[in-house]
Amino acid sequence: MGLQVKICGLARARDVEAAVRAGADALGFVFWPGSPRAVRPADVARWTAGLERRILRVGVFVDAEPGAVRRAREEAGLDVAQLHGRETPAVGARVGGRLWRVCRAAAPPEEAAWIAAGLEAWVADAPAGTMPGGTGRPADWAAAAGLVGRAARPVVLAGGLTPENVVEAVRRVQPWGVDVSSGVESAPGRKDADRMRIFVEQCRNA
């Protein structure tokens, strides 16, 4: 399996269609109300109806109640719940299903406990201040490479990736996957079809 490419923060039907045309392996949808990319489960279900099953539908949640995550996952038809807040492994276990967990690349995660909760992959992101993500700040690539080397689960590199830097990032970090949001936007929540296409092409050539 080659490098997995996730385009996150999709908030319009046309952007979902463009991400699929670009060749993304995973589509990310933000369910945190504080985000300019926030979407509703019913909209995601409509936008992704009929998509090939090989394309993962990933829901991003920030400190949401586990029951709310499960309901959104069912209504939207999500494959994966990506937890992006202060969630503990116990919360992850209550969410259940396929889990990705965001971590700061330099911070050692409670990996054994998260694996017991059902962890499928880590998402190594940059510290983001008051915003959980999507700020365009780059992750610490050296720390992320260290995480790749020691983690027992695959690592998705996020944080500040663009069509211009993703080849270098992949070369230095060697992640299982990459996750882009603001780096392929014309404005928050508005994706640029050409930048998505170039980003995926760059990833395939990395």
Keywords:
alpha/beta, 8-stranded parallel beta barrel, 22% strand
Structural description of this entry:
With about 210 residues, this protein is an alpha/beta fold. It has one domain (about 5-205): TIM Barrel. The protein is globular, with a radius of gyration of 15 Å. About 35% of the residues lie in helices and about 20% in strands. The mean pLDDT is about 95. It has helices at about 15-20, 40-50, 65-75, 90-95, 110-115, 140-150, 165-175, 195-205, and strands at about 5, 25-30, 55-60, 80-85, 100-105, 120-125, 155, 175-180, 185, 190. Strand 3 (about 55-60), helix 3 (about 65-75) and strand 4 (about 80-85) form a beta-alpha-beta unit.
Question: Quick gist of this model?
Answer:
The chain is of the alpha/beta class and 206 residues long.
CATH topology: TIM Barrel
Give the number of DSSP strands. Answer: 10
Largest sheet: 8 strands, parallel, barrel
Elements, N to C (H/E): EHEHEHEHEHEHEHEEEH
The CATH homologous superfamily corresponds to: Aldolase class I
CATH architecture: Alpha-Beta Barrel
Instruction: Report helical residue fraction.
Output: 25-40%
In what range is the share of β-strand residues?
Answer: 15-25%
What is the SS-derived class?
A: alpha/beta
Number of domains: 1
**What integer value in Å does the Rg equal?**
15 Å
Widest sheet: strand ordering: 1-2-3-4-5-6-7-8
The CATH top-level class label: Alpha Beta
List the uncertain runs.
none
How confident is the prediction overall: mean pLDDT? Answer: 93
What general form does the structure show? globular
- First CA to last CA: what distance? 14 Å
Helical stretch count?
Answer: 8
